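Notebook B, p. 112. Complex prediction, attempt 2.
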Amino acid sequence: MAEIKFIRGYPEYMHELINIVNKTRMKRKDYDPPAMSKEEREEVLKLHPDYAPGGKRKISIGQNKGDRGPNEVVDLLEAYPLIEEGEIDLSKVDYDVDILIIGGGLAGTSAAIWANNQGLPPEKILLTNKLRHGDANSMMAEGGTQAADRPNDSPLIHFLDAMGGGHFANKPDVLKGLVEDAPLIMHWLSELGAMIDREENGEFTEKWGGGTCRRRMHACRDYTGLEELRVIRDEFRDRKISCLEYYPVIELLTDGEGRAAGAVLWNFETGDYKIVKAKATILATGGFGRLHIRGFPTTNHYGATCDGVVLAYRVGAKLRDVDTVQYHPTGAAFPPQIIGLLLTEKLRSMGAQPINKDGEAFVFPLEPRDVEASSFIRECYIREKGILTPTGMRGVWLDTPLIELKNGEGTIENAFPGMNRMFKRFDIDMAKDPVLVFPTLHYQNGGVETDPEGKTNIGGLFVAGEISGGVHGKNRLMGNSTLDCMVFGRRSGIYAAEYAKTVKRRGKLSLEHMKKYVNMLKKAGIKPERRAPILLPEYRGKAVLARMIDIF
Amino acid sequence: MKEKMSIMDRIAESNKSVITGIDEKDIEYWVTAYIMGKAYKVPAGLTIMQAMEFAGYRFVRSAGCRAGFCGACATVYRKAGDYKLQTAMACQTRVEDGMFLVQIPFAPGDKAVYDINKEEYNVGTLFKHYPELARCVSCNTCTKACPQDLEVMDYIQDAIKGDFKAVAKESFDCIQCGLCAIRCPAELVQYHIAQLARRMYGRYECQEPEHLKIRLKEIENGNYKEGWDKFLNASIKKLEKLYAERDRESD
């Protein structure tokens, strides 16, 4: 693109705007706008994609009939299965296991290890992945993991922070489990050999997270999820637990009496199916960022398509809080190659300020995510103080050079190697120039309703991680997602193992629930236009798609 | 019509190319890339991954996080007129005119199986599990292949010396894409060796923090029981009040 002149990664015209940010930096160094009052928060939240008019409708069938959800999610709940009854032979079982775990991110992988710890043999646990083992949002978690382990902190304070962040819609007993197990999880990670950032005296380095009143964010540079997951996955492999890759689940199976009893897997490459019979099933399929709710870009990995929620709903699992979506305030808005990708909240906890086009700090940098994101939308679309990018996006600056100013030169390279590397690939030096940000679809706050043991309302069906609903209420705090995955991965693994041990008599595998669901769809007058789970999003070029024909 | 659109519609409109695929009519500049030898005209400024999708390829393999963390999209390419065989992550690299591209869908690499609690913290452990370490010929091909720009050969040499700390630090940003191992003439699987070394370092070099030990004891002893009884029985109103009254630790 030699036609546009770029200087240090930005088109020429943007440098004039960058200079305005540079000019006010010293003045802002020791000043952050104050945190908003409850009333101010409520006002700005009206601009949040969750609360702005439109975008949602009522679910017309099933357990949560009448509840509202994002159109993109309801579309999938009101979609027909990928398979027809009678097309699948359930009499030949390919894998007969105690526990089937669906999804190999932090939650599913942790579940497998703890089920193994509980005495189940590795060959009786099966972990299946839609893509590779580890292709998960967990892998991309940058900021950290919360755990209240410092003397001036406590699980109770952690609980209050998360309650407030979740708008008091969290299930208290589930949240108690999350915060009370957090120190145990840090202990487990250390024992496995995860390299968690340390101070010179050997204590953990603990940083701020948005919406918290204590520093309790544990990080592994800005590769927290990568480090946690590759260590836990390595341990999983050491135990020789059975694992399948490129085998998405296309339908759950029941035992004819409404209990979960396994799943139909589909080989993504050869197209044939496999039948898994399991005493207990753990869904750990992650979130729905790739549905691009309300047309937002996303931080999520390629496979985050809401599959697990759809499958669980068909067997009758109850959902909660699916109406709330977390938009991370700081998604990349420039360069176009990385639009939507995550710029961790830790940047702000280490001093970076959001700045408008006039060089003003316009919001307290560490409001809860929904409030912070809404304030960016207000700055760009109401106050008209955003920065227009060459692709027509609007964003605000995140003044990253402030991090160096406040913490010393070289901080960015040390603390944010991943992000620094990403921008460098596109010739931008975030230690010298600010970066452009705009909210990006980050997290599914709700999901399949869980209890403190990872149980759902369906016998034998457990959930862990982002697919679950209840622990974060209507808005998750930074550092509570990786924690959620490991705490409830562990708990679901333990309790599913215990459950599996009690299962004696097992009925015949059945797709009866699917038949019933299809009848409900028909009765509600829903036409068979959509099918789900969708497995992967569609990004192919429009011109090619228009001329594609299916002949081989 | 712009002023009649809601804010949400305007946001969606500005994100369209990222969400629903690129419309040719919006594109001004084009390049030609050769995907497994076939020439495709693709918009300039896309990543290799986006360019392949634009051309009509739908990924099952070779796409994962799409953000540079997972190592799924390892790519090998040569440019016309250049002898160099280059490597990249398809999701993090701009497509360029004249690239001859192929992706590595899977990197075979044998991982040793161990019980981290039972290993001895010395160089012998690395050689026991990965004896091929001794075959490194210091050719630096691994370093040149690394899309994360890590000094792979250096950390392998550190591993040979048993310097766990150096291996751990130098290899920390590894995304395990497998390109080093694919290129290594000595047939090492560098990223598995580094994984073992990092876990050994994390397990044996870093002591459990004192604060954590104390907190674990407190929880085990039921120190918070009273607090939980109060919190779990509190009304939302009461919790809201407690939340509003929290003191914020000073910076």
